Each structure stands twice: as C-alpha cells, then as structure tokens.
C-alpha cells in the first residue's frame, strides 16, 4: 500500500473539509491510505499528490464523488441505538399527532414530515417507516413523507433501491419485523412497497444552503456532526433550526450535545433519550 506523506496529508485533509465539512487531522493518514487505495490504483496515480491533482482537475466531478463515497462510508444499522426509535414511537409521534389533530381536524390526511439528514444507505429511514407503521397501522388517515439525504451518491443509490443482505438485516432488524416488512429476492431482502413508498432519497451536503418547501416535524441528524469542527457544527444546527417546524423535534446522536452550541434549542428528556426543541415552543 502506498504511504501518504505529511505534506500530502495536509492537502488532502484541507480538500476533504472543503467538499464535505469533515475535519480530519494528521493522525488520520491511515484513513486516507485505506479509503483511497482503490482510487489510487483505478486512476493509475503515482502518489496521493498525483491523485489530488487528477481529482481537482476532473471537470466531470466523477472523481470528486468517488472521493466522497470512499471517505464518508458510514457506520449504520437498522434501529441503531434503539432509544431514538423508542422515543419516536412512545413520545414524539403520539404528541405530534395529538397537536396536529387539533390544527387539522379529521377532514383530511394528517401531514407528517420526517427528515433523516445523514441517512447513509437508508437503514435509519426504513426503521423510522417501520416504527410509523407499527404505531399507526393503517396510514390512510395520514400523509407521511420521509426524506433521506446523504453526501454520498453511492449511499443514496443503495438506499433508493431498498435492498439489503442478510448480514445487514441481522444488525438490528428483529426477525418478526424482517418477515413482515421485507420480501426475499434471491440472496437479498427488499423493503416492502408500503414502507418504501413513504421515502424519498437525495444527495445533499449538509453544509450547503438548506431550504425546503415546508418545514419538517422531526429531524434525525445523528452521528454526523461529530466529524465537524465546532464552527461547522454550529452552522449545521443553525441551518436545521430554520427548517424545523416551530413545535418540531430534533434527534441527534447519544454522544452529541447542543449545550453551549445552539442556544435556540432546548434539551428535553424522555426515559433514556434526549431530544431538542426550539425554545420558542412552550409545549411539553
């Protein structure tokens, strides 16, 4: 394996930060060596400096996207950490639906908008869809729309297809839910249409300008900001505040905190889980 030199590492850490917001330091040379080794060979590059030149001069941006796919390969699983999904099922969704019914009444489908802001290959989005189906049963009285975004084109392509191997399903998917919400296709399992139809996927850089036609009732943004600098974390969560409904819910990673970072958010606790709401919301 070709080793990355200190001067090359400085250039690559700066470049990765510029295209993704991910902050890496001089201790992460091994990450570049392992994640970019295939691209180094594929492009016939003699060094990491040579690869950087090819990536930054590629007008098609194909190599740039391949770098993003390689560097941002994320750790994910179905129902990861469990407590956010218990929070969603037993607290967030019931409270949200109760409030929305007072606003919308029973005359038309109740809108529910949920965004998974760093969805990787889609397991979080489909876990959310399954929770909604388990809680509500028939969705005929609801207009549920789930959005999954990720910076990696490859991850979004996998999520959009909604097909997973047995190993991926064994990581967090209970057997009874697997048989209920997936169909077997040769050596893979595909999300059933009733869950897949709830979701839309698209590529997005969270540090770009964020805007949506309507605000989201619930935003999941877990375990992505930990790779950002403090300045970029504040920028990200300030942006999320702008697209979250006034009485909406922000759910972040269990090791993350907004304390002292974004004063417009207030932390609230339910059992083992912490979630955030905008301070202008006086609801409980």
How would you characterize the overall build of this protein?
- The chain is α/β, with parallel strands linked by helices and 284 residues long.
- The chain folds into two domains: 6-71, no CATH class; 83-278, Rossmann fold, CATH 3.40.50.150.
- Helix content is 43%, strand content 21%.
- Strands 6-2-1-7-8 form a five-stranded parallel sheet, sandwiched between helices.
- Helix 12 (230-242) links the parallel strand 7 and strand 8 (244-252).
- Helix 6 (83-104) crosses helix 7.
- It is globular.
- The chain starts with 5 loop residues before the first helix and ends in a 6-residue tail after the last strand.
Quick summary of this structure?
This protein has helices at 6-20, 29-35, 37-42, 48-56, 62-71, 83-104, 123-136, 153-161, 166-170, 175-181, 193-196, 230-242, and strands at residues 110-116, 142-150, 163-165, 182-185, 188-191, 199-203, 216-221, 244-252, 265-270, 273-278.
The number of helical elements comes to 12
- Helicity level: 40-55%
What's the CATH class of the largest domain, please? Alpha Beta
Spans of 5+ residues with little confidence (pLDDT < 50)? none
């Amino acid at each position: 394996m070709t080793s990355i030199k200190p001067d090359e590492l400085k250039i690559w850490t700066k470049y990765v930060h510029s295209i993704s917001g991910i902050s890496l330091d001089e201790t992460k040379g091994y990450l570049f060596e392992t994640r970019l080794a295939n691209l180094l060979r594929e492009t016939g590059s003699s060094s990491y400096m040579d690869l950087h030149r090819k990536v930054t001069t590629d007008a098609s941006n194909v190599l740039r996207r391949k770098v993003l796919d390689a560097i941002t390969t994320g750790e994910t699983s179905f129902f990861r950490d469990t407590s956010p999904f218990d929070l969603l099922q037993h607290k967030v969704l019931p409270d949200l639906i109760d409030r929305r019914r007072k606003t919308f009444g029973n005359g038309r489908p109740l809108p529910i908008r949920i965004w998974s802001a760093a969805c990787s290959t889609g397991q979080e989005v489909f876990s959310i869809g399954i929770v909604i189906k388990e809680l509500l049963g028939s969705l005929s009285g609801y207009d549920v729309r789930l959005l999954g975004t990720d910076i990696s084109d490859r991850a979004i392509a996998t999520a959009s297809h909604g097909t997973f191997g047995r190993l991926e399903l064994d990581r967090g998917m209970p057997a009874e839910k697997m048989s209920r919400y997936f169909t077997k296709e040769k050596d893979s399992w595909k999300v059933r249409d009733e869950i897949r139809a709830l979701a839309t996927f698209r590529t997005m850089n969270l540090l770009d300008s964020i805007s949506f036609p309507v605000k989201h009732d619930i935003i999941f943004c877990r375990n992505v900001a930990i790779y950002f600098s403090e300045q970029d974390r504040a920028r990200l969560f300030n942006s999320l505040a702008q697209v979250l409904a006034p009485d909406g819910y922000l759910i972040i990673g269990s090791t993350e905190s907004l304390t002292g970072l974004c004063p417009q958010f207030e932390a609230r606790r339910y059992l083992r889980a912490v979630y955030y709401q905008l301070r202008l919301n006086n609801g409980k």
